[in-house]
Fold:
Amino acid sequence: MRNVFADEMTSLAAQDPRLLLLSGDIGNKLFDKFKAAHGQRFINCGVAEANMITMAAGMALSGMRPVAYTINAFITARCLEQIRVDVCYHNSPVIIVGVGAGLSYASLGGTHHSCEDIAMLRILPKMTIICPGDPVEVRLALRAALKLNGPVFIRLGKKGEPIVHKQIPQFSIGKAIIVRPGNDICLLSTGTMLPVVIQAAEELDKKGVRAQVVSFHTVKPLDEELLQSVFSHFSVVTTIEEHTILGGLGGSIAEWLADQSAQKARLLRIGTSDHFFHETGDQDYARRHFGLTPENIAHKSFDIFRNTLSYSR
Amino acid sequence: MKTSVSAQDKINFSEMETMARRVRGKLIEMSHKAGTPHLGSSLSCVDILVAAYWGALSIDPKNAKAENRDRFILSKGHAAPALYATLALRGFFSEKILETFTEEGSLLAEQPAPNCVPGIELATGSLGHGLSAGIGMAIAGNFQKKDYRVFVVMSDGECNEGSVWEAALIAPVHKLERLVTIIDYNKWQATGRSNEVMSLDPFKEKWESFGWSSHEVNGHDLKALTKLLRNVPDGSGKPIAVIAHTIKGKGISFMEDDNNWHYRSPNADEVIKAKKELGLV
Structure:
């Protein structure tokens, strides 16, 4: 995802002279093309996230379009007050891009795990939150964010994520994308989990259950139209995110659901649980620890699906 | 070249001195009526504001959003009444609005909301934001080939915030010679002597060692302040730091250097006494 981000930034900067790329001292060589093409419009802000975010707000308030980029755990929690006051309170058009969402940097230890950021940022008024599901969505999200005249947070994985969309999908902020049709279970995936969720649907195929897979890339604002539709059509709606189940996609939808009249579907939230991960291991290992695997997603969703079937009989 | 304004072409120090007394008078009235704190902090930066708004800034009160205007950020947002009073007397908005300070539904909160009244460049109140925002504005100006300048007033207590020093480290890298920060160094913060809470001194040398063109000035000397604030950029190629030595509560004898006035507001008798001292009654 990060390579595509750097590439798209290079293209977009050619079209928009207001675009500035701010880095928190990461991306060695990643932005060489950007630097070659756009020179001083790359600003290394050092290891100083608070200053970077407020600087970006100052730039945005003076007519520029800054994109601030660094490690997800640091560009969210470390400078939350700057995001709240200087970006959101002022409705400054700053695009905040975090790399290494969720458990991407599992092996770097708990300081680099980032499973609380959606919850922290989504409660801020004016904030838009996009978690692209694959590299194609990264490009589309960035283009859409630039057209939006307000704060946007884009949550990226790291590198090497597979391309899910073989064709360029229709992309609008706040409109989820149906990646695979199905009738029995609806799997709502946000961000980096999308390839895993597609595998989960394939697992369900083996049980004779057809799952719909949705890339629910925008966590704020929620695609309420789609939610209305899936909660009235399916008997099970599962949210899957590389983020705690508290306050992320699952949390948002649980809140939304509480305000609705009775719906047909049961909501199942799958994400990281409310504890720190103290062990060492790579992203796959950490995902297994939290049950973020195709098998577990399929198994848990199927269990509820089977129960709803037996109730209805 | 920068568009000149009358205030810059012809400085009337007698008018500035009158304005400083009138701003102080407004502050006393506002704090009394609203029962609000931070009067000492507001009084301490009045002369800095007056020197900037009547002596240095290239601004047009009738066109507060002019693209090439100088930007002024009062980063010590708790002294907002001083900025409100200055902006009103300088013609940015009606003095009648000042009378609504902190009333329900008023445009003027104790600390300013974004764009609450013309002339407010940044909503401040949480300390340690203004300088970083000012740097962003100065860099934006450079990209846009504009020659506006950015003035940021901070308090000494504000310099406890780590973000101030992040900002201090980056501005010289970008050679932001049109950026100036003025530190209202009144030697007090909310609950103690500034240098007993955190080690600010040697203050000028700190900024100098960080790569700033660093100056010290009597923060109540309108002529000296005006001279410094008009001289931006100063030819050094560096951002400018002005350590303005001030007295908290300046201008009112019984408030000067008494930190109780960080939180107290004056009663009716004290208002009369203060206004007499200011020659306003």
